[in-house]
Amino acid sequence: MKKVIIALVVVGGLAALSAFLYKQYAKPLSQEAHAHFNQNGLRLEVTYCQPAKKGRTIFGDSSTRALVPYGKVWRTGANEATKLIVNHNVTLAGHPLKAGEYTLWTIPGPQDWQVVINQETGQWGTEYDASKDLFRAAVPSHQVPEVQELFEISFMPQTGGTDLVLHWDHTEVAVPIRTQ
Fold this sequence. Notes:
Elements: H1 2-25, E1 31-39, E2 42-50, E3 59-60, E4 68-69, E5 82-86, E6 90-92, E7 95-97, E8 100-107, E9 112-118, E10 133-158, E11 161-179
Parallel strand pairs: 3-4
Antiparallel strand pairs: 1-2, 2-5, 5-8, 6-7, 6-11, 8-9, 9-10, 10-11
């Protein structure tokens, strides 16, 4: 009986150690990324995960079997919902946005996208609650010649603020953010 207990303890310990090591060192399919902007007192941070193209059709209508279909809410990345932190009151695509933490969602379309700012944070990217939307704003999208393999969010400084740039595959969207 003593040998059985020792064997169970050893096997249980090895299983716990294996689970711990797997969680610590296994890479998720979509890596976490951060985009930062800090200029003239305006600080913005976006935390998101970067899915990869991997030869797939990324944006399109249902007939193209696109990964991100037109007209459907997208978490704007992978895994957890994309988080936006703003340290000052700003306008985002012409809409006022108070300093705080939000989630950023989008509804892609062929010519323009709806950018959705939602007040709920901390949720998984498939747990979208439209009743928590602060606003939706239309922004144009355009096609670019270079293919972006990993979804990327970046900032492009502009007079009075910055543009939040979403780029994946051949599609690029610039969301204007300006200080109030």
